[in-house]
Amino acid sequence: MTSPTSYQQNITEFPVRDIEKIHLPKDLEALKTILLQADKSGRPVYPISTGHNWGLGSRMPVNDADIIDLKHLNRIIEVNRELRYARVEPGVTQQQLYDYLEVHAPELMLNVTGSDSGSSILGNIIDRGSGKSGHRAEDLRELTVMLADGQLIGTGFGELQSSQGSFYKYGLGPDLTHLFTQSNYAIVTEAVVNLRVKQPFNLYLAVLDKSGLKGFLNKMAELVAQELVGYSLEIDSQNDPKIYELFEWGMDFNDKWFAWFVVTGHEEVLPAKHSVVTKALSSLVAELKTYPSSDDHSSSTPPVRVRIDRYHGQPNDHSLLATARKFGVELSGMEVNLDLYPQIPGFRCVLPVIPFTGASSDIIQYLESFSLARGLDPAISIIALNDYSLEVFVRVYFDRSDQSAISQAGTWARDLLSELKQQGIYPYRLDIENMAPYLQELKNPYTLLQCQLKNLFDPNNIIAPGRYS
């Protein structure tokens, strides 16, 4: 029997939940049996895919519950090259689909995340995470979900099983797909996700002074809206572990931000786009480096190489390995699991979503000053979700063996969420500790309707109680 202990370990050092059983269904019939038994006994269950929800809870449930680990439901059911989609089960990892596509559809790629290659595709999408080419929830076409009574429901045209394949995600009538993202109404058993055609591109690294963030954001918003730059922008603070190797490479990092973005297009188009982009940014940045995707980047610093790979659709473990390495830990092995290495500092994160405008630089400054005033030096990444919104991934690191440091980081996250809410700034994802207190304060007709929907789909509240509710 699988031990609950490894499911209770988490890099964020949240207090452990009571987990009595770990269920590992190998097919939908086994999953249905587990749900029917849970519904009868009243013992809640919490589904996970691969459980790489770093910084937000890892594999732990929000409240006491048994775990349904869906890692064995890992079939790539279909890849449609003409309509550019993949139909996958929840246990399919980024690396698994990448390897499959390289053999069967090498012209196509997934919008991968900056997490590790062993993380699931569905876990991040269902929690509305971000990818290297925009908001991944927008990559969803259809879902198949299992209700607490074992009934399977398909969204979009999935329920009608169109013989033409998946090509119109809304179906007929109300669109139910996103009722099942960031919710606990059912268990997702299958998803149809967009694939993208690989294109030549230039990767850019812009180095800018902190004082130039406002002007840079304004100009980048224009370039993205004009479709000169894709939904690829990521801006990292100088102390972000993901980029510290830039400084080993000899790059100056005094009071700087480091911005990455991609311009795509055929070879004859890229030079024209490059000219427009460099002219638009020349007066706003201290330095602008260009890395064509067609070149050999074997001698480039790791942060450059891994981004080239990701924009080719190839996932990797660099973000996790670089974090560990910055703190003096060398990781190796097939699966990178931060939870299992207590010598790696833990981290707490807050994930506000803000407008894609230069005025939002004031919010970034506030996040930094709020943290520094509490003796914490935050690492901040700003990521474009689309052409009008930005995700901010702000986090603080702490010694996992120091209870006072763990407590300090927890207080920082709770207080920051509260302070931002008073300013009308809200998170687009929440960790398992803050879900209940934060959402309880948001009671309004909309959240009350959500409760009614939960009661409709799962009347005995056995699926992931407390998750975004």
Automatic annotation (TrEMBL):
Domain FAD-binding PCMH-type: 14-198
Pfam families: FAD_binding_4
Keywords: FAD, Flavoprotein
Gene3D superfamilies xrefs: 3.30.465.10, FAD-linked oxidases, C-terminal domain (3.40.462.10), Uridine Diphospho-n-acetylenolpyruvylglucosamine Reductase, domain 2 (3.30.43.10)
Keyword Magnesium: no
Stretches assigned to coiled coil: none
Family listed: Belongs to the FAD-binding oxidoreductase/transferase type 4 family.
Protein's name according to its UniProt entry: FAD-binding oxidoreductase
Source organism: Marinoscillum luteum
